[in-house]
Amino acid sequence: MTDRESPKPTEPRLSASLILVNSHNEILLVQRNPQARSFAGQHVFPGGNFDPKQDTSLEWTAIRETFEEAGLLLALSDTPSTLPDIDFTQAREAVHGGQTTFSTFLTSNNLRADVGALMPFTTWVTPPSSARRFRTEFFVAFLKDSTSGGLYSAREEHLPTPDGGQEVIQTRFLHPESAIEEFRTGKIGLFPPQYYILETLRPILTGSSSTENQRNAVQMLSRAAFGRMVINPKLFRINDGVNEAFVYEGDELRGGPKGRLHRMPFSKMNLRRNFDLFNQCPVEVHIPKL
């Protein structure tokens, strides 16, 4: 097929995904239903498409989808004494099934989506060659313990649950190191964005107890260029044409300084990145219209 005959790439759909970290430095992963149209059977962070009929922002999308898929609600309330009376299982089913909107559920229970808890953590755009394309903004947030305000249903004592197989068949918190090990041994499947983010957090979230320094490091990374980095993967042949790899912004093959590596070889999906995340991240400044 010539370039003239090549089909026009589809416009990527806006979506959002939430990287939720608990006090044990574990990250919430959900396994998609094997029958799902997108990411079938894979382990991903909870998330989904921006819904213009009910979402006011991509942060809102991430919070709504996490509630629907895992039963964890990131919300604030001025009347905490009434919260234990809410049937979250019934509410998430009603929101997921379209019987009510997420906004109506929140308002009727004097709740507010805690969008301020979400920090940007890169944006990924599906390559033009893909039939189904997404522009996904990833956010990171930390759970609060039972003695703190906010994050009611997502407090430590509340465990995630799947949505009955509608989109998700398994939910669990897993340390980045463990998630990568399970991926290496074939126990779980990960796509490049999820693997990339887990590898980024793995050297920061060490140990089994979250510390203030670790949380501050993640916050600093979010506020640095890394948090705003837009990744448009491009396929290149490397090693004299022997192997293939997704090559990302800033790599020497994408116009970066000689020797700069920012790529993911296909053979073992092993991230190769040799620059300072806090000071040397390439940034594409583009705010999508909602």
Structure description:
This protein is of the alpha+beta class and 290 residues long. 22% of the residues lie in helices and 23% in strands. It is built from seven helices and 14 strands. The chain has helices at 58-70, 88-97, 102-108, 176-184, 192-201, 212-223, 225-228; strands at 13-21, 27-32, 43-44, 47-49, 75-77, 111-113, 119-125, 134-142, 168-174, 230-231, 234-238, 243-247, 262-265, 272-273. The strands form four sheets. Strands 4-1-8-7-10 form a five-stranded mixed β-sheet, with helices on both faces. A hairpin with a 4-residue loop joins strand 11 (234-238) and strand 12 (243-247). Helix 4 (176-184) crosses helix 5. The protein is globular and about 65 Å long. It starts with 12 loop residues before the first strand and ends in a 17-residue tail after the last strand. The relative contact order is 0.16. The model is unreliable at 1-5 and 146-153 (pLDDT under 50).
